[in-house]
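Reading is simple: each integer encodes one residue's backbone shape. An example follows:

___
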Amino acid sequence: MLQVRRLEKIIENRSVLYIEQLDINARDVVAVVGLTGSGKTLLIRLLSGTLVPSGGKVLLDGQDIHQSPKARAGIGVLFQEDLLYERQTAQDNLELYCQLHKLPRSRANEVLEQVGMSDQARQRVAKLAPSAQRRLAFARALIGRPTILLLDQPTLHTDLDTQALFGRLIAQATGEGAGVLVTEEDLGWAGKLCTHIVELEEGRIVSNRARVSEQVGPTTPEHLTPYKVPARKEDRIMLYDPGDILYASSRDGKTYLRTATEEAITGLTLQELEMRLVGRGFFKAHRAYLVNLQHIKAVIQYTRNSYTLQLNDEQGTMIPLSKQSEKELQSLLGY
């Protein structure tokens, strides 16, 4: 469906993004992960046709989207910013979009119902909660029944109910034959939905693979497969049992494993490690920390929005816990 070939963007004589090849097929959910500044938003703008590339092509069903408005019409986009008219109502925002793209006005009501906002249709956008505004922006991305859906960090400023809704909408879209690309800083949410994982770093793809559970197959579920985590310590390759790992952390471009007695460097990225440890009780507490739930002693709240995890090792190690991750942990453990 969507084919990316030698896509490049040059800004101030510097190549800030170069994608040799990337494909999104029908029913794919491609998760593009990377830290802030890795090029995720730039990629979305190039794939959506809102930014002209310096080189290369983006083809939708064989048509270059930067030369064909008809091809671009098959792409639905949720940008990092909601880009809504705050003085207008939710319904007015969508009806205006219908008018601009020659869609029936009834389509506005249909997508409002899809995102659970029929009862807020006449509310001005400025008075809507951040999660509701994000739902409205998602509705706009769906309004043209796109064959390709591009979602730039859809979970920004959303609550857990909205995140669950977005997951269902993505599943519905792919079930109807659409392909989806979603960007996130980590795999805490997107990892549950995706079929493929693309890791982006400084505008380059450093890893592109099918999700681990897809590779293993139904007869050998990943959580039953024996697994050791390889890491280097001095002149040895150490193989750690996941149960012995207190946490993994990312700093200075390296991933460190910490047990009760030692620390070692693994060649895996934190995202790769997270996917390999699915089903083994590990939790993304913060974008730079993956923690073994079996070693958590307490959740400490310092301020309204500040949380820390205390581990059960002798040092009582403290691990930062993001506000969003605290909500997910609370839902997971039921405390």
Remarks:
- Residues 213-225 have pLDDT under 50 and may be disordered.
